User: Fold these one by one.
Assistant:
Number 1:
Amino acid sequence: MTDQATEGRGGQRGASDQELRAAAPQDVRRHDLRVGVFVLAGIIGAVIALFLMTDPATLRGRYLLVAEVEDAGGIRRGDSVLMRGVNIGRIRGFSMTPGGQIDIIMEIEGDWEIPEDSYTRLAGAGLFGGRTMEIIMGTSDQIVEPMDTLLGLGGQSGGVIESAEALGQTAEDVLSQVRKLLDDTMVGTVRTSAIELQALIEQLHAIAGVQREQLAALTASLGRSAAGIEAAGPDVERILARSDSALVALNRTSVTLERAVGSLDVVLARVEAGEGTLGRLSQDDSLYVNLNHAAVAIGALAEDIQANPRKYVNLEIF
């Protein structure tokens, strides 16, 4: 349509785009190229300046924290940072402080807020190697700011590898103890004990055989004794009858003795209660005192009679 329009206006065919470019001055094209290169360089420079002046973590919506520890424990760049079992970041890098401490730089996702009194510790290695940094969450209301330092504990929580190593060490100790138990001396002692035990079992078997024979002989003797008792049946019956009579008489005597003992118990009970003469004598000591005074008076009278017979006996002879 352009060619037709050109032909319609001037009656002649117009120049094409290629012809126009060829007819354009070379300085204009070089100028356009320089402007394009300058704009591209400006964009690259702005991007480089942005990365140099701004931390890449900030561009990704993350912030940096520092964990100060005495020993990094083999943790590597890119290992995970956990808090309550959730992966909230990764290890960004390391630096050595003048005091000999290790600053571990952690890159934390911006969505996670960490209390100011939190602390860190190294977690154990997994099955595929590597370690993790665990943040123990505190209870403070204050939240850490970017590049704040968290205290790092020196100990490490045990991982799968440490547990396997501890289990292997325990198994090795057990095997060592088993080897000590199964040395030549112990094996020889066990073998000797087994031989002695076998000999003892044989002796017990022999003793059991002898006891079995003796029991058989005793059973036979008891059988013969029972047969003899049955043969002497009338005599045994008479003896048993006499024994029954004697037992009846003894029973009667025991009944009589029981009655006498009962009566004696009654008498003694009355005496202890102070009933009757014996009871009064046992309970009241006045009779004893009177008898004692009477004996003393009779003794004094006898002495006086011996000393002064004329006082009591006066005989006159015609």
Note: The first helix runs from residue 2 to 10.
Number 2:
Amino acid sequence: MNIKGLMVDPITNMPIIVLREVQGQRVLPIWVGVFEANAIALQIENVQTPRPMTHDLLKSVIDHLDGRLERIVVCELKENTFYATLHVHSPKGRLSVDSRPSDAIALALRTGARIFVEEAVIQSARSVETSQTTRDSMDVGRLQKWLENLSDDDLGKYKM
């Protein structure tokens, strides 16, 4: 997969990494934290920071240990949480390291490693996405919470 882009969820204001199949049309949105999205955005835009960020540090450690990040795999979706694995080749052999997808993607961008997503994850994400009951209850819950937190000033001329 490739990174199609970063966007902000208009309902939660949380950043979303959008992955897209290299040879295909399917996409996978992954909600991430603001700091993780920033680390990915900095790398996409080739912005150099005065000091190494965490993902730069991890890349440097892997390099100094004569290792190489071969690929990252988004390998599981459990209770609306994505899981990923770093696949590192080192002088001691191949290692699989548990990771958050956002950290794995940020590291893959820095090392040129390929990004993969297990087919089962894509299917699970699509079933959650297309489940009308789940989507409606999430949207209604979010809308209700948003409405409950509006102040009179927020309502402005539509005040009743």
Note: Helices lie at 34-44, 54-64, 101-111, 119-130, 132-148, 152-155.
Number 3:
Amino acid sequence: MLKNNLLLAVLLTFILTVSSVPAWGDSTNDNNAQTNSSGSNTQITGGYTATTTNNNDGQVNNTTTTNSTSNSTTGSDIPVGSANSPSYSAMSQDVCSMGISGSVSTLGLGISGGKHVRDLNCERIKLSKVLFDYGMKVAAVSILCQDERVFEAMLMAGTPCPFEGKIGKEAIAQWEKYDVERPDYQAYVSKLETRSQIDAELAAIEQAKIDQAIIEQEEAERQRILAEEKAAEKLRLEQTIVETDLETKEQRIINVHN
């Protein structure tokens, strides 16, 4: 029994080995070409055909598999390396500066750069705080008043910024006298022009009201004079009628006596 099984296994192995056909490469399907014009091109092609024939119990099964691969890459599809902006840091919380950077990249060229920029408003606040800590309150306010927003806010609040040691109304008088030294001079001039225009419009409206009142008053006076003249004329007519009646009566009396 063991010999029969061993013999059967050897026979099946021989049949399978003889009837199987290995896969082979088809050189006629290989067509590799590469063309380079203003860039790099890569083309990869390849293919193979595999055929397997199985003979089992008198039946023949044929299986054919064909695989073709094509891969093409042109230089225009390859992205250009980007230019990275440099990183800038103040390296301290007590430094009034900030870093700015930028980069530009084009085909074949990338440029990047950066620098530190002073924050003048931050410096002003820090200087004011230091002066205030030393007890120099007027000086601390004065340095803040170099900002036009603070200057205008102080003026609107009725507490004008100091002017060479003067405060209050004296400071306002000096700022009005030497207005070119105001930090908000441009906005101040523009505001004056706007206010002058508004004042002129309001004055024109008021003048129109006055003129209308004068016209109405003159018309009322004219109507009063006309009314008085009519009343006087009516009175004269009545007197004339009365005098005429008297003369008529007198004439009648004279005629009767005669």
Note: Confidence is low (pLDDT under 50) at residues 16-42.
